[in-house]
Amino acid sequence: MKRAEIIEKLRAFPYVSSQYWVITGGAMVLYGIRDEATDIDLGCTREMADRLEAEDFLHKVTPDGNRWFKLGGDIEVFENWLHDTVDTVEGIPVVSLRGLLEMKKGLGRPKDRVDVELIEGFIANRKNE
To answer: What's the CATH code, domain 3-96?
Structure first.
């Protein structure tokens, strides 16, 4: 999913933007670190998670006691998953670059290690501009 498609989907997203934020691959695309992501992962507040559960979206409770939701084929929502703060990219709430880096380091999968290098390079290039 390319940047324009992510933005289009989230501008049409029927939830209050102060209650969710883009994380992981989607955040990387919105910042311009990668060209595309396979889906959109979001973090959300407890209030939004309660609403998603009330609306009967497929969900499960994760080992940390928060909830994970599947909204359609390409949006996953993770309750309370946020490192650092939320920034805004073209009006879309997105985890900060520092938070994104912390998330990717914490996941530790091979693809995340590659992403960590990309994020660190992106941050370094921004500092040098």
So the answer is: 3.30.460.40
Distance in angstroms (rounded) separating the CA atoms of residues 35 and 57: 29
Q: Which amino acid is at 88?
A: T
Amino acid at the residue 77: V
| Tokens, residue 19 | 């209650």
Contact 107, 30 (CB under 8 A): no
Tens of pLDDT, residue by residue over 65-98, are 999 999 988 999 999 999 999 999 999 999 999 9
Helical H runs in the chain? 3-11, 24-31, 46-54, 97-107, 110-128
How many CA atoms lie less than 13 Å away from 56 in the CB half-sphere? Answer: 0
- Among all chains, which residue has been given the structure tokens 């973090």? 43
CA 44 from centre of chain: 9
Q: What is the dihedral of CA 20, 17, 5, 105, to 10 degrees?
A: -30
pTM: 0.94
Smallest CA-to-CA distance from 42 within 73, 75, 5, 67 is with: 75
